[in-house]
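PROTOCOL LOG
Step 1. Enter all chains and additional molecules of the complex.
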Amino acid sequence: MPDPLPFWLDFWNVLTLQSGYNSSLVILGTASLGVASGVVGTFAVLRRRALMADALGHATLPGVVGGFLLSLLFGAKGPEMLPLLFGGACSGLLGILVVQFLVRHPRVREDAAIGLVLSVFFGFGIVLLSLVQNSVATQTAGLDSYIYGQASTMTRADVLIIAAISTLVVVMGVLFRNPFGQVCFDADFAASTGWPVDRIDLLMMGLVAVVCVVGIPAVGLMLVVAFLIVPPAAARLWSTRLSHILCISAAIGAVSGWAGAALSSTLPNLPTGPVIVLVAGVLFVLSLIFAPRRGLLARKWDEQRRNRRIAEDHALEHLFEHEGPVLGDRLVELFAVRGWSARQINRLMQRLRSKSFVAHSSGGWSLTPTGRSRGMTIQRNHALWTQYLISYADVAATHVDWSVDQVEHVLSEELVAQLEEQLRPEGVS
Amino acid sequence: MNSIQRPEHSSNSPLSIHAMTVAYDRKPVLWDVDYDAPEDPQLIAIVGPNGAGKSTLIKACLDLVPRASGLVAFRGQPLEAVRSSIGYVPQRESVDWEFPVSALDVVCMGRYRKLGWFRPVRQKDRDAALACLDRVGLADLADRQIRQLSGGQQQRVFLARALAQEADLYFMDEPFAGVDAATEQAILDVLREMKHEGRTIVVVHHDLQTVPSSFDEVILLNMRVVAAGPVADVFDAENLRKTYGGRLTMLAEAAEAVAQTERL
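Step 2. Run joint prediction.
Step 3. Record the structure below.
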């Protein structure tokens, strides 16, 4: 077990770009890639094309190996990025075309087509890779890193290419955000207004493909899809606005790329891809737990508050109907239908007292004037909702909200008046 | 052999469908549809049983599904020439309401085509979109995420997006599906206003009861056009039976049975 302190010092130095030109360059490269994948990944996820990106990533392997062989023919001494990525792009594209061809066939569903292309192309790539490694073993060192990603093997030129392409992709994504967003939300409507939906889809998938391919040296072709899916998935937990989600997703992608590359270069022999994906995964889990409103904690909290509110409403309604004070030990009887324990009832009454809906005296528990009017409102709301459910059985269920303060907040005043008319006993005006 | 009689088509009709046939996977779903909408602005209902091809008819007019044969003309022009003056309200279920946009964002999408590829949404566009939301009575819900709206409100957001298109001819796919009576009335009021502004509106409709009170024209459709024309002329029991066949009888029998049990 190494001493942890030097590790953290090292990590801090790498993280803050104080650990030499090369590692800083690599970090900036993966971070810019993170921004790009955060942006186009958001569109891919919203268009439900995330798994297509996975197929694309895996389908690049035969092309990567093929590109390597070709580059050897032209006198390369070992794996060079450009020919490998070019080959990868070609076979990735071929994979996507095969998926699209299969989907057109009525007997092959999209998930089956994606799984088929992904596994067959990847299997073929692995076979090809093993053959190549067996025959020209000395020159293949580093070819493995294209599967899991090894950012540290990137040269300065590689990083500059990645950064330039990432910037271009981000600019395109931001520029085309309106047509992209519209096609993701409602492709039929977009088509009806004259947008060339097929071409917009092609452009979106093209950007995804570009990010996939340039991401391979850093993240590896197996995990590049995670770089595209995880940041947007986490970002959606933080906001319900597309523009905000794009920014948050880009930020999460950048942090994952930055911290992941720093971690993997500090720890010996750790491939970059899995570390970056792990960092993104941690950020996702943190978002899942702590995001406001849509996070697990916030939802749990909301649920508890709602249940408490419902219990209070029920209690006030019972007390209102009972009329007159109730002795503490008779409350269990009054609330018998609710099945609450004595302890629950006690806590509930204390809460109602702190909101000054009820008061306790020697005569027992009784409603305060505010409590009475609240109880009356609740009773009226419930009666109106019941009547509404009867009168408009076909559509009412989606409108009814039993916990609302006033029925009028949901239904129009005319409708409420009409329901009240229906509720009035016959002969009374 | 009889030659098929072709109706005369008017080049002034806002919507003129010529011998349109649409097929999915070899099986035709619309057969030889001919229809001319009247020149004056009208509310036109398309009614027919499930699977009659009502939505397909609209989509084929908008080139959203390919036609096997036939053509569609808008005041004598092809679709490409008049795109910007044609509005569309798709079925509410056709989109993902979890999508991260607000009601106002959705309405702004009605103006995206005018903005073109790169221009961002500006305050002017937002104001126009807000005015459309106001017309359907949702101005105060503009910033709500669309998931938090009720079914009727979502339907009205779609209507507001269509208003933002400022079109002359509208196609609407079941705009009254799953809305309560008050919302139905509100939507209908907006449609009537639109008609008075000179727009023709073609609505896929599922509620036969409200056809006479709400619409001027009706197309009775069951794969082919059974009858089409002013409601007063063609919306009768004979044509309805030809459109719905046994199914309408079944509905009538069910209603009869319920009425009988109530009498007992």
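Step 4. Note key features.
The mean pLDDT of chain B is 86.
Chain B touches chain A through 43 residues (CB under 8 Å).
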